[in-house]
Amino acid sequence: MKAAHSQATPDKASAKDTRNTGPGRLLIAVYAVFAISATARAGYQILTKFSEAPLAYLLSAFAALVYLVATVSLAKAGSTWFKVSLAAVLVELVGVVVVGALSVFDPVQFPHETVWSMFGRGYAFIPLLLPVLGLAWLYRRRPGKRKAEA
Amino acid sequence: MDAYFYIIMAVGLISTGICLAAGILKKAPNDLTILSVAAVELALVVYLVGSVVRVISGEPIAGEAWEFWGYLATAMLLPPAAVYWSILERTRWSNFVLAAVGVTALVMAARMNQIWY
Predict the structure, then answer these.
(1) Cα–Cα distance between A55 and A60 in angstroms, integer?
(2) Rounded to a whole number, what is the distance in angstroms from the first to the last CA of chain B?
(3) Could you give the angle at which helices B31-56 and B65-88 cross, rounded to 10 degrees?
């Protein structure tokens, strides 16, 4: 699992089963920024004012975890990491849609203080856009596109 | 918003503009785009030095001090991280990674200003 760090040369081996190349690198960079900011924000919320809205702040922490998993798994090669990425991005999409909807209909339980509240409005709606781009990228780079899955 | 914010806004937007243009023109990261990101780092160093001087001279931070320094430290890590990430694979996409630094620094500087005042 440790190897397969994609080199600058997009040769045949690394061009195959990896998402860590081309536009994927931009995607990973944006995911990394969200992983950092969501982790910092959730940590701050839980350490300073957890009792105010435990559910929302636990969701914050969960969102942070999803972004972390997505960032790491997208950077890794192989079909196992592909599945991890797919799961993380799908959870992210469901999360932003469900939490976004809940924050609109039940603003008491969901004060506008998670990354996903109001469909990520506080973050220029990037949280809503990101999983869609993520799924599109995963689809384009899916394992077994030209070769049977290992 | 103080002068530090406007410095970072100007440098950040110029850097983002240069890197976006380079990416759209299908160029790989070059001296110009990397130096523009280095300029963002320099602007953040100016903010850091200025803030340290202000704290030493007795000016209080209205919000949580550690939150302010946390933002500043994180913002200062972004340019080197983005440059490192972008030169590992030098394609046009890396310029879009570099382009993200300027706007991110801008947003973080705005938040740091809110915390300070």
Answers:
(1) 9
(2) 9
(3) 160
User: How many whole angstroms separate alpha carbon A15 and alpha carbon A34?
Assistant: 26
Q: ipTM for the complex?
A: 0.87
- Structural domain containing residue A136: 20-140
Q: What is d(CA A58, CA A43) in angstroms, rounded to the nearest whole number?
A: 10
In a domain, residue A5? The reply is: no
Residue numbers in B near A6 (CB within 8 A) = 88-89
Distance from CA of A22 to the nearest CA of B (A): 6
Q: What is the pLDDT of residue B19?
A: 94
Q: What are the sequence ranges of the domains in chain B?
A: 3-116
Residues of A with CB below 8 A from B94's CB? 25-26
**Prediction pTM value:** 0.85
Burial of A145 (0-12, 13-18, 19+ CB in 10 A): exposed
